Please model this.
Amino acid sequence: MRIGILGSGGVAQTLGSALITLGHEVRLGARDASNERVRAWAEREAEPAGGGTFVDVAAFADQVALNCTAGAHSLEALEGCREALQGKILVDVANPLDFSQGMPPLLTVTNTDSLGERIQRGFPDTRVVKALNTVNHEVMVDPGRIPGAHTLFLCGDDAEAKARVRGWLGEWFGWPDTAFVDLGGIRAARATEAYLLLWVHLMQVTGTSDVSVRVVHP
Ligand SMILES: NC(=O)c1ccc[n+]([C@@H]2O[C@H](COP(=O)([O-])OP(=O)(O)OC[C@H]3O[C@@H](n4cnc5c(N)ncnc54)[C@H](OP(=O)(O)O)[C@@H]3O)[C@@H](O)[C@H]2O)c1
Model:
């Protein structure tokens, strides 16, 4: 597959490297096509890794793009990608965190709206699936870093898109199908984004970012 990753940070690089290992063609995107982090990553990975602007990598994707931009700025980053993302699935990995007041972070959008919903509203011809945002980037590509069963939440308005993302995450990174808790429509992004407030505390008290939760019920 040709996979476009919007973002140049640690999340984009970890996902990109894992997907390259699996034989996919991957492009990482940034505001500037000559972004230094992307250039260094592409050099390390060699072919078929590459980079470009956010629009370039959105257009490069044949079926799916991943939003790995800073959530507080994702809408700015995605601006201009509407046509390039048309008809494609966008996995929204971003969290709208505001670290300007220090730790713990605040959310730039919450309660009555979410980043996932804002993206879906702004991109009606793109199927947005919120997923992977509730675990650390190393866990995203290697769920076994955390011993035992743990949960990966996902949500989105398009059932077929969610099923495909669920399948890909299993096939690419080994997420067992039993790990997924489908919370329904994209409105549930309000909950999975707000979960980050708890996740930050869990990370602080456990002393590791390899931390997650498991949903249990009768
Ligand atoms: N770290 C984790 O393990 C983890 C886990 C779950 C979810 N997430 C989420 O994943 C996302 C990526 O995290 P990260 O730590 O890899 O990277 P990050 O530092 O949060 O974001 C970097 C990306 O955001 C873009 N960006 C920043 N300000 C921008 C602006 N004003 N306009 C347009 N684009 C802007 C950057 O563009 P340039 O490339 O042009 O600089 C870069 O591509 C975040 O939303 C984060 O909350 C992270």
